Amino acid sequence: MTLFHLREFWSTNLGDDEEFDKLSICVANIDNEPDGFDKIIVGSFNGIVRIFKIILNNNNNDQIKTNEQNLFQISDQLLEVDFKNPILQIASGYLLNSANVQLAILHPNKLCVYSISSTSGVTDHGTSYNILLIYELEFSHKAVNMLIGPLGQTTKGKDIICIQNIESTFEFYENETFSFGYNWNHRQTNNNNGLLKKFPIDFTYIPNRDFIIIVDDLYTIQCYQYRELAMNSTTANNSFNNNNDGQGKISVPEWSYEFGEPIIDLQTVQLDRWYIGILGEKNLCVLRDNGTLFFVKKFDSNPSCFCIFGNDKKDSIIILIGTHMNNMLLYQNDILRWATKIPFIPIAIRRANLNDITGSIVLLSDQGQLTFGYLGTNPSLRIIALPLLQTNTGNNEKIEEELMELKKMINFEHMNSNQNQNQIENERENRLTDGPIDINLIECQKNQQSERLMIMIIELIPSKTIHNIKLLLHQNDFYIIEPEEILIDKLDQRQQFQLRIQFKHENLLSLSTKIKYSIMYTMDNVSRIITKNLFIPFECLVKLISSSSTSASTTTMNGGRKYSIKIMFTKSLSSTTDSKSTQLLSNLFGDLFQTNHSNNFSFCFENYEQIHSTIKIQWSESNVTIIVESNDLGGLYITLQQLFWRILTNKSPETKKIESIQMNFNLIDQLQLAISNRINRKNQMKKIKDEISKFSQHYRVLQKRILVKSKDKTPASLDNFSKLLTLIQKKITKNIDNIIHLEKLINICNYHVWTILNIWRLILEQGRKSNSTDSLEKFSKLIQIYQLSNFNNDWEELFLQSILEIFQMNKDLVKMIQMIEPKQQQQQQQKQKQQQNEQKILLNRMSRFNQILKEKKKNY
């Protein structure tokens, strides 16, 4: 909390359902009182004018009291008049040949000049204020805004009125007399299209140079002399009353400055010379009176209005800026000196001398909130809220308990640094994920309207009342989760929420069922965060099929190839011989497998019905064998992952220890094939990009050649060049399509690599439980890749080098791979050797037979 803020002395709301603009307020001594104090004049678009004279209560020491004693009172409002006509702008000036100030009110169809006077009351009656119409000017075109000032270097005490209508025409009046008009939508002799339409613009005035500063519709600041506009006037009489477009001369600006963004307001200030302040949507620009740049300041927030004036020494510019973040910024030139909060978003800021308080600040909002105050400090110690002693001790005790728990965790990890890293991480997660909020999965079902969409209903269960809860759902490479975040102000009972989960890829099976989420909440005035995982139920991703359909699907995918993994478990002594494979299947997959009369079952994946998987169980006296088959590596990985997870949670004695793992394919060969395919795709993409760069160079050369030929006096036929251009363009577009296709193929290669690595990781983790070595842990850490985006440009070379180094340095991995080596492949190799030996024997016999025949021929 800052000590510097806006000291609000007086405020009020102006009517109901009224709207205001930056031109709806004027600050001046409008009743011409001798004390010279300013009054606040406000006019709304509803046509109501209000005049306020703020009288602050003073005590005996002539010091201003607090805000509660200076609220709005009825006596503060001097006058309220309803003109039954929208008010576009309110201004004051010397509009008669006198030393008094008059009030000018601009309506859409006319301008009215009034005089405000006061009449002292008799006996108990107070002073009454009257408004008297002096003259009015009627228009035929709708007016937009006006400017009042000593235009043309008139004598002191005499101002000129400049009114701009909707046709972008300036009309200049001296009192009630029309002087001249200047139409910006003039005709040009070198333009055959007629009028160059301009929109109504903002403008201001510099007195000593007699300059009118305008902003055109292209956001360009232009400076014109008043005399030049008068000399090049387009009307000799009142064009508001006569609908004729004069054809005057074109006025040349003294200087111009390209601002380049929409302008909110335009004001001038005098120091040793005059300066122009321009407030844009993102920048503040200050120009000198000769058009040169003084400084530019860029804002982080959007400004709404500003007020510019000089300091007391007249050596720097003070700028008050209101923003849409309910802030007011005070700049001294381009340096921020002050920033404070204000009660609303202002549309107008004025500086006034109210009740002998020089430098008072008046703020007005578009809804009619009017506030008067000044920038100051509040040294009251009440702004510092000291906590009570009891709550402070309670918080200290909780903090000490948390510190002790953290110290225990650090000591535990330090003492057990030589233990298995996964066990330490699991214990750390169990400690850090405990919190007062739990999430339960209530229901997960497929959407009937969209095949790739699932609806999940979750329930938040609090153990105590929690505030400011933010549930963040992390996105992954396989699912689009909506909504991404859920905000809850207060959670004191169970609440259910609906999530929409959509599959990202149409042809690639989602390899993860995990959804990571984080819960941010506030408890005991302390912000905390919990990170946990939510899993999509396996029954929502698959559906049972017959075994005949699986055999038919293998003929269509992978050329009829089927990937299978055989996992053999040693039976424990506690397991009975009465246990059957069907009972084990029902225990592991009870939510999918209903019957008890089969030792296998098959299923396919939702939205990927061409991918099938089968789980078989073979029972013997000494071991239990589980066979997992699939026609896709992705389906094989998900099935293996579910199988190992269900075995771990079921804790059946039949599947306690893995004896061996056998496969009908080689993981190393599959990995090398996937990586080589990825490298080939990348090389093809490089070649195509080189071709595109060459073709683009040829395309530019041909374009330049065509331009040169077309500028000749007698140009030859350019048909051949145009044909070449079209051919090159077709080749470029074709190569771009090839690049897009190759990017999709590279993503598929990444998917295959990621799948093989995860299958490898699963098998190594299961084998590590029986043979725990450091080399296996290093290798499993190497291939633990959780995001497809981790495959950078040089990933293949680094990965292959690291694998070779680990295999060369660790012999335990070779033993592990021998355990994983498939028996079928060994049998095939033995058969091939036998066939080769048989072929050699046959060749030897044939050669001997030929020799015998030759010898017999010689004998004959």
UniProtKB/TrEMBL annotation:
All residue ranges annotated as the PTHB1 hairpin domain in the record: 670-744
Coiled coil: 389-416
Keyword field: Coiled coil
Keyword Coiled coil: yes
PTHB1 N-terminal domain residues: 1-379
GO annotation, cellular component aspect: BBSome; membrane
UniProt record, GO biological process: cilium assembly
Protein name as catalogued: Protein PTHB1-like
Native source species: Dermatophagoides pteronyssinus (European house dust mite)
Lineage: Eukaryota, Metazoa, Ecdysozoa, Arthropoda, Chelicerata
